[in-house]
Fold this sequence. Notes:
The complex is a heterotrimer. Chain B is of the alpha+beta class. Helix content of chain B is 26%, strand content 31%. Chain B is built from two helices and five strands. In chain B, strands 3-2-1-4-5 form a five-stranded antiparallel β-sheet, covered by helices on one side. Classes of the chains: A alpha/beta, B alpha+beta, C alpha+beta.
Amino acid sequence: MALVRNGELVTSSFVDAGGAEAIPPAGPVIVSLDQWKAHRDELLKRGTPLGIRLHSDQPPELVAADLPHFDVVALEFPKFRDGRAYSYARLLRERYGFKGELRAVGEVLLEQLFFMLRTGFDTFDIQSADPLKDWRTALADFSVWYQPTADGRPTAMQLRRKH
Amino acid sequence: MPQMIIANRLRDGAIVFLAQNEGWEQAIAAGTLIDSEADATRLMAVAKRHEVECQVIDPQLIEVELKDGQPRPTAIREAIRAFGPTVRTDLTEV
Amino acid sequence: MYRYDEFDARFVNERVAQFRRQVKRRLAGELTEDQFRPLRLMNGLYLQLHAYMLRINVPYGTLSSKQMRKFAYLARNYDKNFGHFTTRQNLQFNWIKLEQVPDILQHLADVEVTGIQSSGNCVRNITADQYAGRAKDELEDPRVYCELLRQYSFLHPEFSYLPRKFKIAVTGSPNDRAAVAVHDIGLRMHKNEQGRVGFEVLVGGGLGRTPYIGQTIRKWLAPEHLLSYVESILRIYNMQGRRDNIHKARIKIIVNQMGIDKYRELVDEDWEFTKNGVLKVPDDEVARINTYFAPPQYESLADQTEMLAKIRSGDRAFDRWVRGNVIEHKVPGYAIVNISLKAPGKVPGDITADKMDAVADLADRHSMGEIRVTHRQNLVLVDVKQSELYELWHKLVALELATPNLGLLTDIICCPGLDFCALANARSIPIAQDISHAFTDLDELQKIGQFTINISGCMNACGHHHVGHIGILGVDKRGEEFFQLTLGGSSDQNASLGDRLGPGLPQADVPAAIRKIVDTYLVIRQPNERFLDTYRRVGIEPFKTAVYGAESQAA
């Protein structure tokens, strides 16, 4: 699967078993919360990079203590209008200090990418014939925003105070 | 009771009726009267195709009656859509 | 009033360009209607019975004459020469074409107006007391906080896909003219024990299918914490609000389900992390915005009440209008003038393009170029010299904008209803018109006294029927329109939800029912007792009997 990350198309080395595939015997893997609970010890012994994939009704506090084990957290948008993962992303970045890859999966579309970017996602499984084009379009939409998030971009209020 | 197919046109929101040539007309008098279930099914499929093709939104089958040969929706909501708000008859186009 | 700086201006222009792109994608089939719908709603664009409807924000009800003239221009060039003011201080146009909307939004952006988030599952227009900054009973002008909330909420990346819409209202006065108790968040300015002005925060109020009065989540919030605290309320709602059923998705549902104490606990837990962080509102930003709300340069004038009394004693009609529609101003020599959009037989809240221009001219000539919009669908000129009242009144009379019925029986709140709205079950406007025709005697109206009638065409309650002294709800019974009455609702600081009077009435019977209720009230009321107070004293039975007859008592 082609993901957009740092403005480029990349392929992930992770197998996303959280998307209902079986956990492969070796290699980097992303698991669901159920799979993590059921196979935690074996997965930790595995010695490969690990990731977790959360449904939209699974807030990050459920895995907060285990975050140091994960290189990737994938948050689902089952429908583009299910906005829970925006809060989850901010909590992961701003509350729990997660510094790994924060991946948006599910119904990830051009017109919501800008919000995903600002709430802390850095990798996107964009449902599009031309994901990179959509990414560039979304990025260019706004140069001014009002709310501070962890992305560090200055808000209008902050820019005003500099002037 | 005969039926017609009503929709909003996508680009301007105008109320339109599926007409003879499978086009969409604003005047209800130009709408195709549908008398059989087979026709209703066939024409709704046409309307749905037009929806996918971005001509119209949300086509619906509605009941009409003929008064002095002129079609009129039986439901008040659809009559308001066909003829305009009852409180602003000065604005009725058709 | 607030003026955009370079950042605000750039933001709205970028938003217009984004929507232009989205419309293009929709028309080209790159976006389905399902994908496009939230995008157009978040710019204020609905698809209604006849055409698209565009809802335009009037932030906290404050409008400039320039903006009103732009509304008139848009009404003439893109609609059918009129607009409609709503119960959230917004303006609606009913015959908009999708392909023209980007241009319309650009016109609006040019005068610092938007439709941003006037719909959608996001934070909507922040509404406020229409007399903000001018009322004698106000603690402080709350609009600086409304403007802070407006900017904070616009395209908030975390809260643009909430479970459902989110409405915030603010009052700076203990006399609540903004209906804060029936909003998702209500903010009531008041002083703490140290005498410092802050906000009581109410949460979980709302009308619609399951109405609730808001509950106090925090007795006093320091103003610098406004944004961080609101963020915590929104975050808990975003994560835990129901998304399985559109009718159970508002914050009022989960607040009442888990209880206010639990909700407060969750909010406070989240707030602990953020209260002293980057969202703390700096004093200099408050000061910066407050300069825009600074009162105008008033002249030093003597109070003109005596002079006016002389004119009033000689002109009965003028006297009635002053008594009814003119409110006392903070500053001597000035007055607050209410412009009624409720002339008999007219559509409540509607105004023609020509009258929009006329009101703009009157605002420039008599009221420092500013106009306010009320949630009862009227307009206000807040800085009129008392010495100019008589002249202004004559002009308003000529425009049919001087009906002296403010707060009286025929000052009806009325949603667009089935004549316009795709959600409606019944037509609400004809009911309002019938009632206004049944009560044209102005002396009688003033004798009846303070009375709110609120009419909704469906359970979504955009006409606020739950909180009318009389509420009227249109329902569909086997394809016919019936109207259920409720009594005893109120949206002020002693808010209450109305009680159902009885089975729905056919349209033709409604004015007579109102008449019976009024007549009953006039017989049993005590001196100076408003209808609402009489109702609260005697209960529903006398009115039920009056409308439905003595047999109804057996039921």
